[in-house]
């Protein structure tokens, strides 16, 4: 009797069918994030997560910061469920959590060790004591400078510079024939781009967005002094096209040796000290974000965090992913791949306790202190009805903050005067809060 191969074929057929069924059941998690280096690294390392979780497939949507904010806001407000994970920040999270738009992040696994997460970060991503996003990295702001250029001119950067000193240094360090600019600052319009920086500048010059009765204050002497200082400094000592430069553009300029100083997010320290990413890794120094009339609100507080919209169809798989991406184990993965200086900062006490991190990141303790001392509840010298250092913690700010940012970017580009930019901005801010019913 001839042997039959039918059962074997059936076994193979069954296996193929099982595989097909399995891949059909694999949960696809769509992640909206921004094109910052730390997020690009997350995508690069994410096959390790997919390997450990073969029933989950990750689909990445990587966007420029302003575009990400628009897309995420549209998706969450319409409940369209386009994204299962959103990269959002300390501005959106409490507001969206309050509205019931985000899945609460309760019941995290014991080995996640939530108590290890820096308290400032947890508090900023919670509403009424419930956590709505897990911090991917947390930042404040600080001053970076080229130690070699300072030494060549016989200059010494103080630990806590004033803006007057910064302006004097910038004048002495600008060498346009050598392609070196005294200062790089954000000029690209956006409530989280140029206005994040400009708001800290206005705060330390003694200004505020609104008085206690929600009257806009952009025509005040403090705003005029701060914004005039900023536009004059960039026109005189900044790089060409400064009005188009956001965080990423200035990071590229600084790390390629074009800026003598740069005031921006503390997260950039890990990139500037990374020999693979920075031509000035052995020449970069750091100091506190500058102050002027008051220390209040001179350095910001921000978290880029991972949240799950209520509209996600893959909430369980999404939770598994964001737990992995913000875990101690993920930090170890980055350390192996990029070195300890480049791990996501500001999130975990255990990172700052690591001797390897302290050795690779001379800025570590300084950054943690900046994060812990930024005070969103007292961001200005005069009292205000809002919270937030570099933003106004109300939903309307996203819109009017960006419009004001466009006017101020126009002033940097020389398209309008500072007075015109601030008058237009004041009208926009006043109209927004009046329509929303804040002004009584």
UniProtKB/TrEMBL annotation:
Its main location: periplasm. The keyword Nucleotide-binding does not apply. It is found in: Periplasm. Belongs to the bacterial solute-binding protein 1 family. GO terms for cellular component: periplasmic space. The keyword Signal applies. InterPro entries: Bact_solute-bd_prot1, SBP. It comes from the Bacteria. It holds the Pfam family SBP_bac_1. This is Extracellular solute-binding protein family 1. Keywords: Signal. Residues 1-26 form the signal peptide. PANTHER family: ARABINOSE-BINDING PROTEIN-RELATED, DIACETYLCHITOBIOSE BINDING PROTEIN DASA. Gene3D superfamilies: Periplasmic binding protein-like II.
